[in-house]
Amino acid sequence: MTGVTRAESYFSFNSEDVQYGIEADRRSKILRTYVKNTYSYHLNEILATIVNEYTDWERPVQHPINIRDETMEALSDAQIVAPISQTANIHSADHRNSFLYVFEYQSKFGDYPQRQGCIHGEDLPYVFGAPLVGGFSHFTRNYTKAEIALSEAVMLYWTNFIRTG
């Protein structure tokens, strides 16, 4: 079993980027660096394709927050989601019991801005039952009743998976 969250590449951005967003030239620099470090040929075409695919063309003006969100989604998909999906597909070719989950819930009183969605690792408190015991040292200590129920469900899903595959 493997899984992803909505904003896997959250930590690729500094606090200023997270708070205020980024401009198109910074997006180009970030994505250009990614493309240069990942591919050998057709770099300009790949960069143009990524920008085209992850730009909301229905918005006449690109706001820095939206540019940041689009860039985060592109990096998350490229660096985390695609490799995990590929790994799950390869594994499932030989094993029927291969599973991939997407965790999208963001803690109401968590450490990260609500707009981001669930970030990398934000599923762990629910897997380990932090809401059931009022939190752990590394996880928040303020959970809602719905989050307690979510943690119970996630723990049940995981233990059932471990027990039965």
UniProtKB/TrEMBL annotation:
Which keywords does this chain's UniProt record carry? Answer: Glycoprotein
Chain ranges of the Carboxylesterase type B domain? 1-165
The protein's matches in Pfam families, at most eight in alphabetical order, are given as:
COesterase
InterPro entries reported for this sequence: AB_hydrolase_fold (IPR029058), CarbesteraseB (IPR002018), Neuroligin/BSAL (IPR051093)
Q: Which domain of life is it from?
A: Eukaryota
Family label: Belongs to the type-B carboxylesterase/lipase family.
**This protein's name:** Carboxylesterase type B domain-containing protein
